[in-house]
Specification:
Layout: H1 3-11, H2 14-39, H3 49-73, H4 77-97
């Protein structure tokens, strides 16, 4: 936390401080938690900015597909990855190249 933020934090009453803290951690407990749990995002060893950017885009895209897929089948991330990888990644490639979600 920067020094100017620390000064403002001391001025907040406890309920507002709690709300600010909750809002701050929304990203960590929302999308990032999903990415880390399903894609092991925190273990990623990529360091070059373009590679990190592309890796992040594909992980978020895959997570979006998973969310869409789960609405139909109610399975786990592992099931989704196995489903996409069947028949030499035919379904994953179909998802990338098509306009609609593959079944």
């Amino acid at each position: 936390m920067r020094s100017d933020q620390r000064g403002r934090a001391k001025e907040l009453p406890p309920p507002q401080w709690l709300e600010a803290t909750i809002q701050h951690w929304t990203i960590e407990t929302g999308l990032h938690a999903r990415l880390d749990a399903s894609r092991h995002d925190d273990r990623c060893r990529l360091r070059r900015r373009p590679a990190v950017h592309i890796h992040g885009m594909f992980n978020r895209w895959a997570n979006s597909l998973l969310i869409h897929w789960r609405k139909r089948t109610h399975h786990t991330t592992t099931d989704f990855i196995a489903h996409m990888a069947e028949d030499h990644d035919r379904r994953a490639l179909s998802a990338v190249l098509s306009r609609s979600f593959p079944s």
